[in-house]
Amino acid sequence: MNDHATDRNQLIDCDVHNFLGDLDELVPYLDLSWQKMMNIGKFKKDSVLNIGSFQFPHVRYSHASNPLRTDAITPSGDYPGTDPQFLVKDLFERYNTTYGILNVGHGSMSAYHNIDLTIAYSTACNEWMYDKWIKADPRYRMTMVCAPLDPKATISEMQRVAHRPEIVGLNLQNVNIPMGSRHFWDIYEAAEHYGLPIVLHPDTEGSGEYSPSQFIGPASTYMEWHTTLALVAQRQIASLVCEGVFEKFPKLKVIFIEYGFSWLPSVMWRMDKNWKALRESVPWLKKLPSEYIRSHIRLGTQPIEEPFKPADLISLIQMVKAEEMLLFCSDYPHWDGEFDERAFVHFPQELKRKIFYDNALESYRF
Q: Which domain of life is it from (predicted)?
């Protein structure tokens, strides 16, 4: 038995990050024209002074020391999250993980200005993840990346790879278009058809030309940016509900990973209050906003909020009947991840079973 085994039998980790060790890993999946544009493969030699070379979109906020755990550096000395076999040993075997869902960690190009390159990258990234990671261990599952600024391209990519059983969600990412917008409705229709939930994870905020910056403008520091990421989720949930997305697509689920969840009661209560007084402005809503949220929205547990009295967190969950809404996330290998069950020690056994396994099994396409 491993050193962190408990009396639970199964665990689905809904946020495991894998990284490109080098952009050259994408060379087998990209045409020469894209390789040249990205200065990879044989074209690396053509940029002696590195002038005009491709740069992956980076978030403007840098962690004061290192955003990744230095104890997760691979045995060969490579970046954390770049070695499938080591990740299995360092995470899955240590914590008795049944399945780990990969959300690509080096960033997407969702908000990048060159949409054609974004499309090419998305296809290459999905193939790289499948070949290098999914085939490495049967416990790996993945969310596919796409180009949300181009719905037709996103649907085409779903048609190409969504039949693979190891793909359990669509990693849509945030761009500066509210998620309730009709821009996304064809994507939602396709996702509903394939049984894939939409997954939202912090990534493009501030890292691309078409990315939101927490809706009131950019933050000044990493701490401010990291603390206020939850505002993005709150705004998107309001958009999804108020625009009637869940009336239009009754089987769709949207999963918000790494935004926390302690803010959920205030959002639900405020929306319910406003709906009672302002329902004429949203006549397509047939029930309380909180009912749509409870049925269609799922939230990752990380970064879990820790009140002065730990049991108060259970009360907060019970206040809004969110027992079926929460999904365990380790956020491996990030600095603020949760890698064991100490944060859940006060939770009832039935609630832990839902968070660790049952809710993910119901929310993703397993």
A: Bacteria
User: 27-79, pLDDT tens digit by residue?
Assistant: 999 999 999 888 888 888 654 555 556 777 766 666 666 677 778 788 888 88
* Distance, CA of 176 to CA of 204 (rounded, Å): 10
| Contacts by 23-30, CB closer than 8 A, 24 or more apart | 23/54, 23/56, 25/128, 25/132, 26/121, 26/124, 26/125, 26/128, 29/123, 29/124, 29/125, 29/127, 29/128, 30/120, 30/121, 30/124
Q: Look up residue 230 and give its two tokens.
A: 């939850």
Largest CA distance in the chain: 64
Q: Kindly calculate the radius of gyration of the chain based on its CA atoms and give it in whole angstroms.
A: 20
Domains of the chain: 12-363 (3.20.20.140)
**What letter does residue 261 receive in the DSSP assignment?**
S
Of the candidates 157, 69, 89, the one whose C-alpha atom is nearest the C-alpha of residue 118 is 157
Q: How far apart are CA 85 and CA 248, in angstroms?
A: 42
pLDDT on residue 2 = 44
How many other C-beta atoms lie within 10 A of the C-beta of residue 265?
15
- For the chain, where are the alpha helices, taking DSSP H only? 32-38, 84-87, 115-128, 151-161, 185-194, 222-227, 230-242, 245-248, 264-278, 289-296, 311-319, 349-353, 359-363
Per-residue pLDDT reduced to its tens digit, 298-322: 999 988 888 888 889 999 999 999 9
- The number of residues making up the chain comes to 366
Q: What whole-number distance in Å separates Cα of residue 364 and Cα of residue 325?
A: 12
Two tokens, residue 37: 């544009």
- Per-residue buried b or exposed e for 110-122, using 16+ beta carbons within 10 Å of the residue's own CB: bbbeebebbbbbb
CB-CB contact of 287 with 341 (8 Å): no
Helix, strand, coil tally for the chain in percent (to 5): 40, 10, 50
Give the span between the Cα atoms of 269 and 275, in whole angstroms: 10
Copy the structure tokens of residue 298. 């799922």
The 3-class secondary structure across 62-117, one letter per residue, is: CCCCCCECHHHCCCCCCCCCCCHHHHHHHHHCCCCCCEEEECCCCCCCCCCCCHHH
